[in-house]
């Protein structure tokens, strides 16, 4: 049992980018590879958790041994997360698009007399804040990520409070770090109890350490 401390636990993980349609053939996206999320899904499953892995269109394949739910848009991701609950913990590692195109076209937009179309953006739901704020059925542990390029800890602390999640995994994604799209990560785990700066290590090692901490917290 010690080797599988998450046996009998259910964890929902979000991962990857979202794609927000402009029309049936075009979309707005971001550069998230889904690597850190996939590593977290694998690490939780390795500790015995039942993992529902809700993923946008990621560059890396989903891990083995998890239940994969594929989505495209942020709205679909939120629906899939809600449908996956109840869970003991939720780890939101997805890079969710902050905005979607209002009234995405049902037909391919055509070049024409009117010149280029204007896109009106509207805010997407915040999945992390929604789950963290649930009055009923909130997972016992809700973990978010804060990828920042400046004043990382300050922004991440504020984010933890604003979103109402229990833990924030903060990391510096400035281009000079090579973290975005790379195989390593350097994070600080921020909880109500304090902050732990972890040395730079592989994304798999970050995931293993985070999964171990989640197992401790749920024990
Ligand atoms: O606000 P920001 O995007 O920096 O917050 C990042 C954290 O919030 C990540 O854990 C991400 O998965 C989550 N998030 C979310 N839904 C959004 C935006 C962010 O779940 N619409």
From TrEMBL:
Part of the full-length chain shown: 181 to 399 of 399
Protein name as catalogued: Coenzyme A biosynthesis bifunctional protein CoaBC
Source superkingdom: Bacteria
Family note: In the C-terminal section; belongs to the PPC synthetase family. In the N-terminal section; belongs to the HFCD (homo-oligomeric flavin containing Cys decarboxylase) superfamily.
Binding of CTP, residues: 98, 108, 125-128, 145, 159, 163
Pathway the protein acts in: Cofactor biosynthesis; coenzyme A biosynthesis; CoA from (R)-pantothenate: step 2/5; Cofactor biosynthesis; coenzyme A biosynthesis; CoA from (R)-pantothenate: step 3/5
Enzyme Commission number(s) of this protein: 4.1.1.36, 6.3.2.5
The entry's keywords: Decarboxylase, Flavoprotein, FMN, Ligase, Lyase, Magnesium, Metal-binding, Multifunctional enzyme
UniProt-annotated stretches for the region Phosphopantothenate--cysteine ligase: 11-219
Species the sequence originates in: Rubellimicrobium aerolatum
Catalytic activity: (R)-4'-phosphopantothenate + L-cysteine + CTP = N-[(R)-4-phosphopantothenoyl]-L-cysteine + CMP + diphosphate + H(+); N-[(R)-4-phosphopantothenoyl]-L-cysteine + H(+) = (R)-4'-phosphopantetheine + CO2
Function: Catalyzes two steps in the biosynthesis of coenzyme A. In the first step cysteine is conjugated to 4'-phosphopantothenate to form 4-phosphopantothenoylcysteine, in the latter compound is decarboxylated to form 4'-phosphopantotheine.
Cofactor: Mg(2+); FMN
Gene giving rise to this polypeptide: coaBC
An example molecular function term from Gene Ontology annotations: phosphopantothenoylcysteine decarboxylase activity
UniProt remark on cofactor binding: Binds 1 FMN per subunit.
């Amino acid at each position: 049992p010690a080797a599988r401390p998450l046996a009998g636990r259910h964890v929902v993980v979000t991962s990857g980018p979202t794609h927000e349609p402009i029309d049936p053939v075009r979309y707005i996206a971001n550069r998230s590879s889904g690597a850190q999320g996939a590593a977290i899904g694998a690490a939780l499953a390795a500790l015995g958790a039942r993992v529902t892995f809700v993923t946008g269109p990621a560059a890396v394949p989903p891990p083995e041994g998890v239940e994969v739910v594929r989505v495209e848009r942020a709205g679909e991701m939120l629906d899939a997360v809600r449908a996956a609950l109840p869970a003991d913990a939720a780890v939101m590692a997805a890079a969710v698009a902050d905005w979607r195109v209002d009234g995405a076209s049902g037909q391919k937009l055509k070049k024409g007399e009117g010149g280029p179309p204007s896109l009106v953006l509207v805010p997407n739901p915040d999945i992390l804040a929604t789950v963290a704020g649930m009055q009923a059925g909130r997972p016992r542990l809700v973990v978010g990520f804060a990828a920042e390029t400046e004043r990382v800890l300050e922004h991440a602390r504020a984010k933890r409070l604003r979103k109402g999640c229990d833990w924030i995994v903060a990391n510096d994604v400035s281009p000079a770090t090579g973290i975005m799209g790379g195989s390593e990560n350097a994070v600080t785990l921020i909880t109500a109890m304090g902050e732990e700066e972890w040395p730079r290590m592989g994304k798999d090692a970050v995931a293993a350490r985070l999964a171990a901490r989640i197992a401790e917290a749920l024990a």
